Amino acid sequence: MGIKCHSNNTEFFLLGFSDFYPIYQACILAFFVISYIFSTFGNGLIIVVVTLAPLLDTPMYFFLRNLSFLELCTTNVIVPKVLQNSLSSQKSISTLDCAAQMFVFFTFAVSECVFLMVMAFDRYVAICCPLRYTSIITRKLCYQLTAGSWMVGFLVSLGQTSFIFSLPYCKSNHIAHFFCDIPPLLTLAHADTFNNKLSIFIACICGAALPLVVILCSYINILCSILLIHCVEGRHKALSTCISHLLSVVLYYGTAMFMYLRLGSSGPGENDRMIALFYCIIIPTVNPLIYSLRNKDMKTALRIHFSSKVHW
To answer: Domain range for residue 175?
Structure first.
């Protein structure tokens, strides 16, 4: 018969990287600050330019603006608390705040997983069915797909957060991570977590693996269509448009699925925290560079926008 435990924990302690050497902690803190600045500036810039530039009033950039918004929110859920804990001796977070951080983070994260699939579908229609693009990808459909992505993220996050915080936490309230993530909290739970792990597996299949399959199928068809383009310039433009999306997909899905599909893992370690940096910090920082530097329309819109400001 199992030992009953009634948890009265009102707070957790986020250990972050406190077990690292001080020099490594300083380097990681500097990395967080620099990445946060670049991520906020880059994603914010994309949101502003796409909103203001008539040249970018297309479904592709509507989706890009929403992706930038998701990533801007993701970093702001995680980084400010990391910086606060790093600069303070008090590393606690209330149970309610921990649950809120987890819920909001996974709402954005799962929404992004689904949203990347939406963007792949948009590129598939644009390249494989160009004559029907405007009749298929309507403004109404753009809003519906965006709302659907947010709804999936909200529901998955609500279920996982409720499931995690229904567990008793009696062994310890020290989280060996820099934010309230699912794997480290599962290791602290004083209960059988098989059902939680099963629900995480199902959520990963529905929220990550299935979208990834759709994305790969879309890009296989896109690649076949691109190879049939006789114009070298047209082929190059199509490839450059899709490569940026594909790079983002590989980075995001690769690191996230590696973290959450390892149900037999003994617990979070140094490698897990470094991997989490990819989908929490590095990808939101790199994505604006991928999309803005590789895309002619974005660079043209930036040039027009800033040149008009200078002339004014």
So the answer is: 11-311
222-249: buried (b, 16+ CB within 10 Å) or exposed (e) per residue? beebbeeeeeeeeeeebbebbebbbbbb
pLDDT tens sequence across 21-53:
889 889 999 999 999 999 999 999 999 989 988
Containing 174, the helix (H) or strand (E) segment is: strand 174-175
Q: 140 vs 59, 63, 81, 143, 197, CA distance in Å?
A: 10, 13, 37, 5, 37
Contact by Cβ (8 Å): 111, 60: no
Structure tokens at 305: 């926008």
User: How many distinct structural domains can be found in the chain?
Assistant: 1
Q: Which of 190, 47, 67, 75 is CA-nearest to residue 122?
A: 67
- If you ran DSSP here, which 8-state letter would residue 92 be given? E
Tell whether 129 is covered by a domain: yes
Q: Residue 64, Cβ neighbours under 10 Å: how many?
A: 25
Collect the ranges in the chain with pLDDT lower than 70: 1-9, 234, 241, 244, 263-270, 291-294, 305-312
Tokens, residue 169: 């936490």
Q: For residue range 65-107, list pLDDT tens digits in order.
A: 999 999 999 999 999 999 888 888 788 899 999 999 999 999 9
11: its two tokens: 């707070």
Q: Is 55 inside any structural domain?
A: yes
Task: Report yes or no on 2 lying in a domain.
Answer: no
Q: Is residue 3 part of a domain?
A: no
pTM beyond cutoff 0.85 = yes
Secondary structure class of 93 (helix, strand, coil): strand
Helix (H) or strand (E) holding 146: helix 139-164
Residues 6+ positions from 159 with CB-CB distance below 8 Å = 199, 203
